[in-house]
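Usage

Read records sequentially. Each one opens with the input sequence:
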Amino acid sequence: MLITRAPHPPREELDQLCERIGRDLAGVAVRLTPLDRDALRRLAAWSLPTYGDAELDRVARRVAVDSAGLPLLAVELLHAVALGLDIQAAGGARAWPAEHRTLDQTMPGDLPDAVTAAIRVGFRRLSKDAQTVLAAASVLGDRVPAVALGRATGLEAERLSAALDELEWERWLAAESRGYSFVARVVRDAVARDMLTAGQRQRILEAAGLRASGAAGTP
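and closes with the structure output:
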């Protein structure tokens, strides 16, 4: 029997069960962690067998940024890369991403449906406040200060803090000295594109004191 659990919110009965596994109960408790750069490179070598060493290094760096090493996202992104290259150049596709464009070149294919669906399911499982904050963060760019998220969402300090804590526990956002950023860039892009209308994006920018027609983060 396999049981999975999320780290948040805490559940006393699951903590007690984990405490007994390996002692009173036969079994093992495994903490899953994101794939590191070496694991992503091996995964890329498996999915893109024609790539050389330099090309594998580039795609592994890109997938690490886009997926944050989350296995579902990493596998589906690499599948999409392989499929997109096959469609573009059957019989001899060029490597992606191109040299000197590791982090900014557009993917050769659409974002996989499996990734988009997983993001939507996870988004809907969040509390309403967490959804509101995550949507604002996706529009306001990278490393968004909490005060900017507060202005954009209109949430009072206590509710904002609780939503940010939830998003950190669930590995949507990471806190840095300059603000909050998405753990996986592809998730930020999907939330901004698929979870919000154009009008909602515009209102978020206006509430944060930014020009809707300009780049996020421009006063």
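Summary fields computed downstream for this record:
- Strands lie at 173-176, 179-182.
- Residues 117-207 form a domain with the Arc Repressor Mutant, subunit A fold (CATH 1.10.10).
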